[in-house]
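Box 3.1. Reading complex inputs
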Amino acid sequence: MKVGIVGAGHVGLPTAGALARLGHQVTVTDTDAPRIEALGRAEVPFFEPGLQELIAEGIESGRLSFTTDPAPVARESSAVFICVGTPPRVTGEANLVAVEKSALAVARHARGSLIVVEKSTVPTGTSDRLAKALARSKPGVSFQLVSNPEFLREGHAVEDSLHPARVLVGSDSTAALEVMRELYRPIIDGGAEYVETDQRTAELAKHACNAYLALKISFANAMARICELSDADVVSVTKVMGMDPRIGPGHLHAGLGYGGSCFPKDLAAFQRLVERLGYDFPLLGEIKRINDEAVMSVFTKIEEVLWNLEEKRVALLGLAFKPGTDDVRFAPALALARLLVDAGAEVVGYDPVANELAAAEVPGLKTADNVHEALDGAHCAVLCTEWDEFRTLDMTSARSAMAFPIMIDGRNLYESSDMAGAGFTYVPVGRRSVSPAIEDRLLADSL
Ligand code: UDX
């Protein structure tokens, strides 16, 4: 089947690569000419494990191509996927300008009929609005709208696109549902859950999933605060919660909280949407409040161990919003970096892939070429992103590089006993801190 993808970004490229691997003829179009040109040489503009190889494979097979011209995409494709960004407006509402513009740009060239598939996360009702806009723009063409939200996680986008646990397809058109079924046939035959519904339900289900996952994280972080106040252990609390199959273990990890291009933006957009619909749902606001509190709580821990932050050097281990990506959008590490810079600390971050993007976002944030350079002379280290290279960090050499052996663990990556054994004052989240007596004395002397 011939398929068009509009938007060569975090959603469009894994989708395109996966559909080409499934045997479809895929053309990706984007207005960013240098990006399209680079993609023609299989150069992927961001870090996503396995994506470069998938794109290269598609190009080599002759099933994947890139163009800035939407005309052939509209004329030759059975379905066109809209995979453009829906960034937040200042009000929190999703900005749907790119969705409308890019769909109209393709629609201009359509003939006869065209299936337009929304992959971007949008408020429920968007496909109905888009259907009207498209019909108005090209009265002679029959447009069938489909909502097919993506559930892919950054860092696992290739795996999630090739082997999704579930595929959700919503449309009011039975003909369009049939085409989508054929498109996903290999994935359906591979055993993925395949859910068909109407387009409004599919749009709402995507917002519901992301809001609920964010709720789980905030619930775990609220538990962490309560554990700190009651000398209990949040890792054990959430482990026990996750053992209940009705709750499930995912997204219950307490720490610095969630960031990224999805949860913060989708939650804000969902809040505005339910307000507009006239439903009072303050729980959504609480999810964000607890998430903001998670960063503030780690900042307070740093202040507690270092007292005044001026002229103190703080090393941030990890800057990306999570491991496996160079994405720093709404990254908790950057929110923390801003607080530390404002408080007068010297903040040195190190991330295996996100240094450059992070430094561009936070004035005053210095970056180091490797973890040892970041730790050198640091009065405190804060683990912000649980990259594998930090899991295996040699704590003895880390300790000797630092001015004070203090580790604040914003992701509960380490074990207290190991850290105490290595001579660290160790402060996790929602768990008891350890502080070797000798280090306490040294610290007191130095301050
Ligand atoms: C998320 C959804 O998982 C995905 O289905 C949707 O399509 C897009 O949004 P993503 O943002 O890539 O994907 O990452 P995810 O792995 O869900 O993590 C989001 C954030 O939550 C990260 O900052 C992560 O560090 C944080 N997180 C995740 C926690 O703090 N605790 C957890 O237990 C899990």
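In summary: Residues 150-154, 210, 213, 217, 251-253, 255, 257-260, 262-263, 321-322 surround uridine-5'-diphosphate-xylopyranose (CB under 6 Å).
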